[in-house]
Structure prediction request, 166 residues.
Amino acid sequence: MSAQNTNLVLYEEDVDRIEEEIAKLRQQTNSNLIFLVDRDGQLIASCGYQEDLDTTSLASLTAGNIAATGGMAKLIGEKEFSILFHEGERDNIHISIIAKRVILVIIFDQRSSLGLVRLRVKKSSEALSRIFEEVQQKKEKAGQDSDGLGSPLEEITDEDIDRLFG
Prediction:
């Protein structure tokens, strides 16, 4: 299991909870690999067999896949497709959007089934959504000073930066 840098602010306890949840999901689905990606294609966490797999490329392609299918959804009047499934000869990929923030990717083979994966993802999505909601709340709380105002960096203007470096 590993956690990577991302634009989300994740504390160590958050990463531990995320990794624990995806490890449990991997066991319940009997899948080969599970990983979480942000919508920019940055790998957040992964669990499972990935020896010969370029997870960085796969994470980027997954985010691109979500963006492309989002465009298709809009063309037919949908907001987005929250679940995608790709079936291969040996391996299958189940992709779902969690809490409108992150992308959950499960790679599995004939030792599992789409039905089992969908069932387990539904329960795990709720737990992961709660974690990411708490992460968002921590981020919002950390963005405020003790007097309730925003960060002092919000007051810096482009003019201030030009004067400093100009």
